[in-house]
Amino acid sequence: MIKVGIVGGTGYTGVELLRILAGHPEVRLHAITSRKEAGMAVADLFPSLRKRVQLKFSTPEEAPLTECDVVFFATPNGVAMQQAPALLQAGVRVIDLAADFRIADVALWEKWYGMQHACPELVAQAVYGLPEVNRDRIRSARLVANPGCYPTAVQLGFLPLVEAGVVDLAHLVADAKSGVSGAGRKAETHLLFSEASENFKAYGVQGHRHHPEIVQGLAAASGQPVGLTFVPHLTPMVRGIHATLYARLTREADVQALFEQRYSEEAFVDVLPAGSHPDTRSVRGANLCRIAVHRPQGGDTLVILSVIDNLVKGASGQAVQNMNIMFGLPETLGLAHIPLSP
């Protein structure tokens, strides 16, 4: 059994980790931290976990994290980089669901995240945890940087095209929408029901901190610099990301076949029949990315539709997928959840 610790067990990604790991046949939950809720039973805060999770929250200082085989950080940006070095020194493997280790250029990370990195020497050791790209490196990783939700949907949608070199890499466009849970479990005016309901808006048009993460991944896949216009939107739903992606073909290709071949062995990427329109409900609660390929009017502009649940394949489910790879388990173990409907 894998002894698991979770730092930051009270946010949306934290409770999603608990939901998934509580049903994982090879996991024993060993420690869950929360400064605010220390001493409270997990099931008292999250009644959905009654009779499934018996632990109480403890402070990070009191939690037996060094006894764990792996520790997940489901914390705000800037927390994992403070605590990860000591855990790695103790032989614990670390999966960070925040952004502390995602961007290889530390100066660029500091620019976008507005803080000084506490352990820049570890950034080069971190493996970017997109299994469909880095599976071999994840197997031996000590520190995994779990991808962001927008970057997961966008990269999986563009990857077959940029890897094959069949599109104009200088002018990619990602028009992406997210449910409000993507902003985290916190009290902010724009996330209140009265503000977010019956509303739809773009944000971060001048620049969003997931932009350099997406560009970094696509450039690595293509071997060339990538130009990307990325515009995120907030939608009045709890879960889900819908990314509508645009790229211009530079040479003729059977794009449907390209996607089907690229993801034919991937358990968590579903390429739909040509002309399909995936919706976020079709992946809700599941560790799954569904993709559809369109070529309107047979022209040279491709439209790729990519949908995920931002809390599962976009966060906690992908983190457990990475854990399975790191510990030599079947990649789908504990992740065979059928999407919820309705």
UniProtKB/TrEMBL annotation:
Gene3D superfamilies: Dihydrodipicolinate Reductase, domain 2, NAD(P)-binding Rossmann-like Domain. GO terms for biological process: L-arginine biosynthetic process. The keyword Oxidoreductase applies. Keywords: Amino-acid biosynthesis, Arginine biosynthesis, Cytoplasm, NADP, Oxidoreductase. Its main location: cytoplasm. It is found in: Cytoplasm. It catalyses: N-acetyl-L-glutamate 5-semialdehyde + phosphate + NADP(+) = N-acetyl-L-glutamyl 5-phosphate + NADPH + H(+). InterPro entries: AGPR, AGPR_AS, AGPR_dimerisation_dom, AGPR_type-1, NAD(P)-bd_dom_sf, Semialdehyde_DH_NAD-bd. Catalyzes the NADPH-dependent reduction of N-acetyl-5-glutamyl phosphate to yield N-acetyl-L-glutamate 5-semialdehyde. This is N-acetyl-gamma-glutamyl-phosphate reductase.
